[in-house]
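ERR on first pass: missing label on line 2. Operator R.T. fixed the label and resubmitted. Corrected input:
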Amino acid sequence: MSDAVKSGQATHYVMAPKRSFRPRLTLALDTLGAWTLAIVWIAPLLFAVWAAFHSTSDAVNFNLAGAWTLDNFRTAWDGAPWLRYFFNTFLLVTVVLAGQLVVTTLAGYAFAQFQFPGRDVLFIIVLLQLFILPEVLIVENYVMVSRLGMFDTVFGIGTPYWASAFGIFLMRQAFKSVPKELDEAARIEGCSWFGVLWRVYVPSAKPTYLAYALVSVSTHWNNFLWPLIVTNSETTRPLTVGLSLFGAPESGVNISVISAATIMSIAPLLIAFLLFQRQFVQAFLRAGIK
Amino acid sequence: MNDLARYERRRRIMYGWMLLSPALILLSLFAFIPSAMTFWSSLFSRGTRRNPSEFVGAGNYELLFADPTFSKVVVNNLIYAGVTIPVSIIIALAMALWANSKIPARGFVRTAFFTPTILPMIAAANIWLFFYTPGLGVLDQIGALFGFGSVNWLGRPETALWAVIIVTIWKEAGFFMIFYLAALQTIPPDLKEAADIEGASRWTYTRRIVLPLLMPTTIFVAVNALINSVKLIDHLFILTKGGPSDASKLVLYYIWELAFSYFDRPQAAALTVMVLLVLGITAAIKFIILDRRTHYQ
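pass 2 clean. output:
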């Protein structure tokens, strides 16, 4: 099928040289549009990186010839207990993910492979939580966490996210696709329900676990409002909250130093993303499309 | 034999509940009980040392409706949703169509679109702060090249909300793009060939074939964008703190402020109940109407 066969207005282009002109023009326009948007989209980040390595006066004057420096990073690093914040965030995402994996695996398994009365109603109740956002319930969750004695602890920040409806849903889908025969074979071999879960279901859902883990870690690495509310000390505060305090206008830090602190705190996740981009995108996709 | 079957059945019921119990306990503690408590505490007045808290029925809601800040934040949030949802959907779609076409350096283009998604909102706000700063900021410097004067983007009531909206769109469009990208890759190439044979223009092909096939994705993305328009407020803490004079204050930020700055929990609770209602209606529409209609996928 060549372009010349196109009916309608295409018959005007029967002459040979013009045939490939239109597709090439569209491609050129597409490229122009895509590149422009891509540059606009990435520019703020690139600019922040550039500013972080230059003195404030060079940065605000766009002095492209200005000398590169690490001074901003030094100033930023000395301005707040970053190592502690990094450790807190690391601990937080670990605690959240570990809890989520246990809770959602058990619940997903129950919903996928166990028949019992009330199961479908329960499933709908669980799905409701997709819309009762933890972010909206900050006031009463704060009361609850305080009552449980978990205020200003990593568990105070983490436990409300353990029973993630979204995770339960994902695990249920993954476990549902495991062939029944495998399950039965394992049972005949004498596996307990836990043995079946551990030896048959969990290994077969590995891609889902990976996807869920990536989404969970990047969500909680970036989470801000809830940690802001339930922490009030250096020993539990995660990076995002630390960064917001550091960058507060009241503290009078200049823009290059703020950029340095920002780049510093997003660097681990950003580098991981750039290295494993395909996996990240696949993970978000798998997690999003049900 | 019958006894054995009954025993087996009972055992499975027990296991089922046992497996679900951690999730159910946690969901009750951090979702259902707090929701009920929110409703309950929205019915009582704010207790002070002299006047202990008492039952006021709809009193808190009446107070809220009389509060000018309330109507301001609701209008702001409607604008926020009304702009961020369609604009990020359209940009996401354009990004996906481009990222799916055979342009040079496609990998770079995809990375550029997607990268803002993995940044924390706080970091995004810090980065954009640099753009919006009056006089020194990037926007003003670009404006100065064209002879515009300095504008305090974040400090003026007319522009503050828009500055916030732009950051949100920047943050979420790339995320929505990947869903469109995935959907585009499932469209069979024969459709494009058939359209070419019929002489359909690219625009007709996109409008009549691609867009309808992307409808389920659009619904999915729209629901997500709607939820984001309620919960994406972190950048307000850096950029505007809801100011100037509430010009960029959104509902969730106001809930936070009522509860943790003004210590007015009943008012915060009443506002939370309204947000939960809106989310509940959204959930109902999603589950009952949309999921039924998109079954064919």
